[in-house]
Amino acid sequence: MTGDANYISVLPPAGEMPGIRDEFRLLLLCARTRVDPQQCEQIRALVRKQLDWEFIISKAHPHALIPLLYRNLSAICADLVPPPVLQQIESDYRVNAERNRKNTAEMIKVLRAFKAANISAVPYKGPALAVLAHGDIELRKFWDLDIVIRPRDILPAKSLLISQGFEWRPMQGQVTGRNEQQNFRFWHEYNFVHPDTRTMIDLHWRISPWRFPFNVDLDDIWEHLVPAQLLDEDIQMFPPVVLLLFLCVHGSKDMWWKRIGWICDIAELLASNPDLDWSYGLELATATGARRMFLLGLALAHQLLQAPLPEQVLAWIRTDNHIQPLAEHVFHRLFSEQTFLDSFVERQRFHRKVRERLRDKLPIYQQLAKVIFISVFIPNSNDHEVIKLPSGLSALYYLVRPARLVYKWWSQLMRRSDSSH
User: What is the reported pTM?
Assistant: First the structure.
């Protein structure tokens, strides 16, 4: 049961929460491919107000909502939107559509090359998700092309992409040469760029890195791939419920749901696939330690964009007392007027809260301890500038660093104490 009649709220819909600007309400109403008559009237009523269109466009871009914003405004209330505004949104829409078409053609070319080389590759996000969830490659904003392969195919796939003119861009910390296989354990992707077309490909052999564990057995998932079409090309995709799980992990891992477009992907995938194997989805999420991330992503789509969920799934969401505070945290960051700094400590705190198993939290604690140790005990350029030591005494900088930090913290404490009197 997934229809509108079965929409059962877990929390108040995000669009009805107090303090959300009308500009955000308009973006939320337009962030969907299916708009019912009541929502059409709400959109028209909002557009009749004195809206800050510069603010709307400035938020639509980072939230990846320009395509849906243009599609719905032009279809529902083109007569009410100021002509220069609609022209700008249309121009941005067409630029994105052209880029999507070029990237999709490049994706098909690469998938054909992989198939010819007997490398099984599955497109993940990008144009394939646009077609599967939104029904149109023009209605989703994407920049790079994500392709998932099995670990055994990493080196052949890398060589093939290089033969196609792509350049491997190792990330900081990735090893090249004889010891390259170390990357396969500690990393989850390779990044490639084509110097002529500027097409970017992320080649994944895992969905997340070791410091944010999500150890799904890709060989087992490969047994459940389903046929699909990307334009006129026959491809293979992950089953929709598996793709939902992957998207929920991605949203929690990268920038912790800071893009409404990511939540829109989940809502559209739910609406496009009413007959999901929910038992298998929850079983896989639980086995991989991603149950809370899975349920959080579903709850966000349900509350933010009224994505249909069966009562069974809503009951699962209610049983985890962490979901509501996590969802409220995401909404607060999405709609707050203040600018948030993505501090390492805050990100790690969020990452810990979305994990239910201690063993999945341990790498997060290890990473946090490592960063704290480096920041407290490893000298940096500022230490060398403040205190000049001869080269023979350079080892003393390992004492200078913590001493400087203690003095800095003590000074701040004294200033706060003085200001309170």
Answer: 0.85
